[in-house]
Amino acid sequence: MKKYLILILFTLCFIPKGSAQSVTVDATIDSLQIMIGEQTAINLQVSMDANQHAVFPAYIDTLIRGVEIIDVQKPDTQYLNDKRRMLITQSYIVTSFDSALYYLPPMQVEVDNQTYASNPLALKVYSYSIPLDSLNPDYFFGQKANMKPDFVIGDWIGLIICAFLVIPILILLIYLCKRLSDNKPIIRKVKVEPKVPPHQAAMSAIEKIKNEKVWKTGDPKAYYTQLTDVIRTYIRDRFGFNALEMTSAEILDQLNKETDKDALKDLKDLLLTADLVKFAKHNPMINENDANLVNAIDFIDETKNPEDENKTPQPTEITIIEKRSLRAKILLIAGIVVVGAALAFSVIFVCVQLYHLFS
Fold first, then answer.
1. Is 219 found in the same domain as 114?
2. Is 153 exposed, middle or buried, given 0-12, 13-18 or 19+ CB atoms closer than 10 A?
3. Are residues 203 and 313 in the same domain?
4. Residue 8 domain flag
5. Claim to verify: residue 104 and residue 54 sit in the same structural domain
6. Residue 32 is part of which domain span?
7. d(CA 180, CA 194)
8. How many domains does the chain have?
9. Residue 171 lies in a domain
């Protein structure tokens, strides 16, 4: 009985503890030998139970002196044995710029507040060697010429588009600046109205004078000025000469060549009275004013063109020019600013692209 008890105790002494066997830490390196400036990866693997927690070493910028850490990749976790075990791999990208043989000490991982160390590693860094010409040790090569890159349309497409946009943008900017300086309206409104025959337009104006009764206000000069202006406008539109710029005598002489003399008697009396009122301060009687108004109507009826009575009024275009408003000026200035900014951006972009392409 004692022999069996001693054998059991002896066996238990050589069985390792479960916690010590459940965690293993292993370190590997992708390449044991690199050239100066090249990179390699150190892979730190931890195998443990799924319910355990591991804390990997956190390096700032160097693993050891002479070996720099470029990047620390995201840990990769794999589950084993129906997710009862897991294998976590942490990769460290390292490099070196000094040729030497580096000893990489064990990397320590903390699992459930207990520290475990990996196996040590070694890294050999070689320097680049330049072959020497033993036959011509004093011969030196000069500076190499600059290499011209191949033509790629993608490198020029933005430059070409901006270069073609500069000219129309500049023309638009000059146009807007000119319109702002000359104070002309940007938009002109066109109103379409039917063309009224001369005798109808004259009769409408005389009817308006009758309704206003200007001669009863004690200002005969204003009355005769309006009346003669209507008659002169009618003569211009009816006979085709500019009666508005002619004297009464010149008008009568020209009408003697154009119409019947009997129709001019009433007009002659009207023009004579109007000249006396305007230039001699004549004050006609009220019945004389009425008579001259009738004389104007009779002259129009006797000299109107018979073809105009049955003629259908034709539309004519009358252009109405409106003064530029403050809002239009603000919009014009804003347009100049936007176009100017686009022009400046295009020119700067072209210059920068040319500098990069030819530098």
1. no
2. exposed
3. yes
4. no
5. yes
6. 20-126
7. 34
8. 3
9. yes
- Is the Cβ–Cβ distance between 277 and 285 less than 8 Å? no
In the block, tokens 């002259």 appear at: 299
285 and 345 in a single domain? The answer is no
**Complete DSSP assignment for 164-217:** HHHHHHHHHHHHHHHHHHHT--S--EEEEEEPPPHHHHHHHHHHHHHHHTGGGG
- Do residues 233 and 297 share a domain? yes
Whether 136 is in a domain gets the answer: no
CA distance 44 to 118: 8
* Position 277 confidence tier, pLDDT thresholds 50, 70, 90: confident
What average pLDDT is seen over the chain? 78
Nearest-Å Rg of the Cα atoms of the chain is 54
**Strand ranges (E), 251-322:** 315-320
Q: Are 286 and 202 in contact, with CB atoms under 8 Å apart?
A: no
Domain match, 236 and 349 both: no
pLDDT at residue 41, rounded to an integer: 94
pLDDT at 15 over 50: no
Among candidate residues 55, 58, 56, 52, the one with its CA nearest the CA of residue 21: 52
Q: Is 236 exposed, middle or buried (0-12, 13-18, 19+ CB in 10 A)?
A: middle
Looking at per-residue pLDDT, the higher value among 119 and 300 belongs to: 119
What pLDDT does 8 receive?
Answer: 41
Q: What are phi and psi of 15, to 5 degrees?
A: -85, 120
Structure tokens at 334: 């804003």
Measured distance CA(39)–CA(33) in Å, rounded: 10
Mark whether 184 and 211 lie in a shared domain.
Answer: no
CA distance 111 to 116: 7
4-8, 61-65, 141-145, 244-248, range with the lowest pLDDT: 4-8
